[in-house]
Design a protein that fits this description.
The protein is α/β, with parallel strands linked by helices. Helices cover 35% and strands 16% of the residues. The protein folds into two domains: 214 residues, Aspartate Aminotransferase, domain 2; 133 residues, Aspartate Aminotransferase, domain 1, CATH 3.90.1150. The strands form two sheets. It has a seven-stranded mixed beta sheet, with helices on both faces. Helix 2 packs parallel to helix 7, helix 3 crosses helix 4 and helix 3 crosses helix 6. The chain is globular and about 75 Å long.
Length: 379
Amino acid sequence: MVDRLWSVKEKNEPFVLPSFETISFSLPSMSNWEELIKGESDGWVYLSDGNPTLSALERLLAKIQGVETCWVTSTGKSAIAATLLALLSAGDHIILLREGYKSTRLFVEGTLQRFGVSVTLIGVDDVRNLPDFIQPGRTKVLVLEAPTNPMTRVPDLNYCTAIAREHEITTVLDNSLAGFHQHGELPVDLIVHSLSKYASGVGDVMGGAVLGSKANVSLVKSRNVWNTDAMSTHAAVELWKGMQTYTLRIERQSSNALAIARFLEKHPRISRVLYPGLESHPDHLVAARQMKDFGSVLAFDVKDGSQAMRETLDKLKVFRIAFGTGFTQSIANPAWLFYARSFPETQTGLSAISDNTIRLSVGIEPPDELIADLEQALR
């Protein structure tokens, strides 16, 4: 049921979140304004600071994630950028997973470094030596991702957060591939999401979210008051609608992905499959400890090189070649071209992205239909 957003008779509420299409809000008296500005009463002032529609979505996302509060932005990229801009200053140092989301790395190396923030890139396999990468007094933020995009590596979040707290480092977790029902119980300081993924579900609108304690989220929001990338009320309504089927969708997507991963692991034309739900995955034991399920994303290598990979993608009929994750429609894409061409070092190690690697985002279609599509494409 929609939260009460205005004074109506008890139980006389809409079933769908209303869109408040207004930029500004009024109050009847100066005393009301003084109470609002001092934080002595609740209300709204201007769309860039929030409105009833956005607030309802924020409450819903925070409840499902299991944290105190949430702040929504127009895109997942803006949520990440706003969080890091709020936490870092010139001279600070940040630790970032090499296997993580491409745009996060581009923002850190292309923007934050220009303003005096230094960065150390580490692999998921380097996490066991995390204290060695900390610069005492300078390291302020540790950015984590679980699973990573696109190669689904899973760092030990309990270990990472324990080390970070010992050194007074703020932990930021990009939780976009895991979903809202996972990791909220862990001692992560801030969680960010791209809402165009599981929240939307069908790839129609974009959005971002920053979640955590009231103190931490308020800090991020207050330090971005001049560059707030406000979400539209239309997007908020569509995302709220999408979240009504979130649990059903992600359960089906995760079970489909596991079935496909098991099929691919036995296929003679596949040399490697990376999916946290497989016992062969290098981080399976960690993932099994800290995840309720393993998500919709997996990666695999086609034997015989890049040309075989290209032919496989071109022959797919149900899977569509596109960007995107968490949609009800299944998607396949060339991992090297879409995610890693800017970073040559990603070609080595257990997380290596090869020129014959395909990343799948599995939808809700019948699993037999998806497996049959892959089987004919690989034939």
